[in-house]
Amino acid sequence: MTLIKSISGIRGTIGGTVGEGLTPLDIVKFTSAYGTWAVNKTGINKIVLGRDARISGNMVNNLVIGTLQGLGIDVIDLGLSTTPTVEIAVPLEKAAGGIILTASHNPKQWNALKLLNADGEFISDADGKEVLDIAESSAFKYADVNDLGKVYNDNNYLQEHIDQILALPLVDVDAITKADFKVVIDCVNSTGGIFVPALLRSLGVKTVHELYCEPDGNFPHNPEPLPENLTALSKEVLLKRADLGIAVDPDVDRLCFVCEDGNMFGEEYTLVAVADYVLKNKKGNTVSNLSSTRALRDVTEQAGGEYHAAAVGEVNVVNKMKAVNAVIGGEGNGGVIYPELHYGRDALVGIALFLTHLAKFGKPVSILRSSYPGYFISKNKITLTPEMDIDALLLKVEEKYKKQPHTTIDGLKIEFDKEWVHLRRSNTEPIIRIYSEGNSETVANNLASKIIADIKEILQLKN
Q1: Which residues contact 12 (CB under 8 A, 6 or more apart)?
Q2: Which of 253, 234, 192 shows the shortest CA–CA distance to 366?
């Protein structure tokens, strides 16, 4: 059983013993801490709540609602929703913050409390530390019987979210309608099965073949939208002779596409394609994290903008976007952040912008993909063990490559002309991630292998 506390929220596996998994007592403890923090921060006794469709969602939802009520906080319960929808709802409700019950791409045994501030954005690292301090010291006080919070169920935000997307100047419903796209969607039996078909209908897409759109939490495959998990979608695109396939993760903040020929568009290129379209219509800067493809930088500079890299983590990307006034940004895991709508990864706005781009492009998805620089990212990981001193290990790797351009704002990233490798400790799993990119799969894999060999050599020298 696992319980991980980070800027990504309180994430863990359901069951087990207290403090070692996401148990009912842990859920109450951290909800109490967050609710206390949010009210102290804002003076507002209102929190927005939403969840994905995973099996444990209803149980966790009941515990969170009861705890917030016990603190004297009113709850706006959106029920089955998406992470970006809750992010939009928080400021509209003038709430103190929001909680999304989702473990994002993690398998069904996981769940999590994703925590938002009053702007509907993920809480900062400093705020997260305050919440954890309150939790560890049990510095919360519950309300008297006459002051318990009330619960309001609100199912209007699906349409509100869609309406805000349709109102964006760069979303062209007429162009999408005229393109008459035939689309297959894989919503991994979570809330995308509610939201994505509704969005596509509103965009004028008449032919939608639904795959795994029953929001019952029974994920038919690993829910992370990676190529190896999307084989059924790829086959269905070919079978239905569709123009493209669309896949989202359980909480609908990550997005990737399948080309009409069944090949993957590549989750790294979701943001690249959307940014290309936005930059064609609005000059400006872009941001992605250090582990994302260089292709965004190429596309941005070609359009006359400046590209900036941020530390991994949505809150870090958002902060950098605000600092450089970026017109588009996100993460290479299929996360699109379009600040004209809100500062959060949003698969729904990504779909609308991508389909507009594709409609105006007028050629198949595979041709659009081939118009972008051809990089390949190799994603590897090393499982952490208690005796591994990760910081010392990274320092030794840095020393070995000190003559190469490198940055340590988030782990260690080393550049080799247009190739790079990024080593960092995961925020959500007990592993070190090793990402490398080159102009071919072989080049990227060889670079990763070289760095992994360096690490093993360093560890052996230490032993």
Answers
A1: 1, 2, 3, 4, 21, 22, 26, 110, 111, 112
A2: 234
Give residue-wise pLDDT tens across range 312-337. Answer: 889 999 999 999 999 999 999 999 99
Residues annotated as part of the active site: 104
Whether 153 and 177 have beta carbons less than 8 Å apart is answered as no
Q: Is the pTM of this model over 0.85?
A: yes
Q: For residue 182, which of 357, 364, 347 has the smallest C-alpha distance?
A: 364
Predicted confidence band at 455 (pLDDT cuts at 50, 70, 90)? confident
The string of DSSP codes covering 234-302 is: HHHHHHTT-SEEEEE-TTS--EEEE-TTS-B--THHHHHHHHHHHHHHS--EEEEETTS-THHHHHHHH
pLDDT in tens, 132-175: 999 999 999 999 999 999 999 999 999 999 999 999 999 999 99
Which tokens belong to 207? 């032919």
Whole-angstrom distance, CA of residue 309 vs CA of residue 321? 9
Alpha-carbon span 210 to 220, nearest angstrom = 13
How do residues 356-408 score in pLDDT, each as one tens digit?
999 999 999 999 999 999 999 998 988 767 667 778 888 999 999 999 999 99
Yes or no: say if 190 and 54 are a contact pair by the CB < 8 Å rule: yes
Residues ≥6 apart with Cβ < 8 Å to 228? 222
What is the pLDDT at residue 8?
65
Asked if residue 463 has pLDDT above 60, the reply is: no
SS3 content of the chain, % helix, strand, coil (to 5): 40, 25, 35
Instruction: Give the H or E element holding residue 48.
Output: strand 46-51
Q: Give the C-alpha separation, 215 to 31, whole Å.
A: 25
Q: Residue 300 corresponds to which tokens in the numbers above?
A: 């941005």
| Dist. CA 81–CA 89, nearest whole Å | 11
Q: At what angle do helices 157-166 and 192-202 cross, to 10 degrees?
A: 40
